Amino acid sequence: xxxxxxxxxxxxxxxxxxxxxxxxxxxxxxLGKTTGEITHRTFSEIGDYLRPGDxxxxxxxxxxPARLLGTKTNTGAAVEVLLLKRLEKDVWETLxxxxxxxxxxxxxxxxxxxxxxxxxxxxEEGNRRIRFSYEGIFEEVLDRLGQMPLPPxxxxxxxxxxxxxxxxxxxxxxxxxxxxxxxxxxxxxxxxEEKGVRIAPLTLHxxxxxxxPVKTDNILDHHMHAEYYEIPKxxxxxxxxxxxxxxxxxxxxxxxxxxxxxxxxxxxxLKECSGWTEIFIYPGYQFKVIDGLITNFHLPESTLIMLVSxxxxxxxxxxxxxxxxxxxxxxxxFGDVMCII
Length: 341
Fold this sequence. Notes:
The chain is about 20% helix and about 30% strand. The protein is of the alpha/beta class. The protein folds into 2 domains: about 5-65 and about 160-340, QueA-like; about 65-145, Beta Barrel (Thrombin, subunit H). The strands form 3 sheets. It has a 9-stranded mixed β-sheet with strand order 2-1-17-16-14-3-12-13-15. Strands 5-6-7-10-9-8 form a 6-stranded antiparallel barrel. Helix 5 crosses helix 6. It is globular and about 60 Å long.
């Protein structure tokens, strides 16, 4: 299976640069996963496609301001550090630009020395292991000095940090937002619960995979980076009960999908657990847990469009994407949304 099998042509002007004022005002493309039928709606109408007894699974991870702009202590040269994964209390796996000039032993400074760092080693694929030094609480220092790590295709500055967080974000640790969840408001979630839709949170901290394109022509040669997840007992019980009573499991986003599928047993049962997953879902995968998916529109040739294609079929998904381009939908993190059901 080739990476090029998942290519589609996207005009650059359709890449959304700013979030809408109203989170629920995004356009909604509904795709029948077995029929390929396409319906155009607005996200505020998502409840029309959810039934009492369904379970909506959300990822409650919270994005940290993981992008740090600083200098090399000895030369004053500019350096950018993106925090990817906490290895121990003050040691992080990071993505550094320019990486070649930040060899082991390099010392860095941020915020006029409020935060300093030493490169302790080089990890696989060039990531740097960095130890930070500071006074006080790291999260508070990071909140003052760090910026939201927006994807490289978003060039507009973010005016409000909260717009790159879901309204239910709770567990700090992500280097990127689970963007499907950005469309929900607390009022819409309450409306769905009053209808009888059950809400089940889990946590997957979005990491390096978000920033790494598929570089191999054969997608089976692509290596997914590990991401940490937690499934609480209440969520595991609710998902299991929903399936037993004939309800549907609707995942909000590819991160919720990967967590559910990685953590379940062969029969699709869940239990309270935590761990790391490198699961790579592409066409041919047999889903054990989810029945439907709410998700944004993804980059061509990305692992995310491959996952979506596994659920609804590559031809149907690419046809839906072509329709979305024709209809001038907004794409990627701050863009419109798709429901596969």
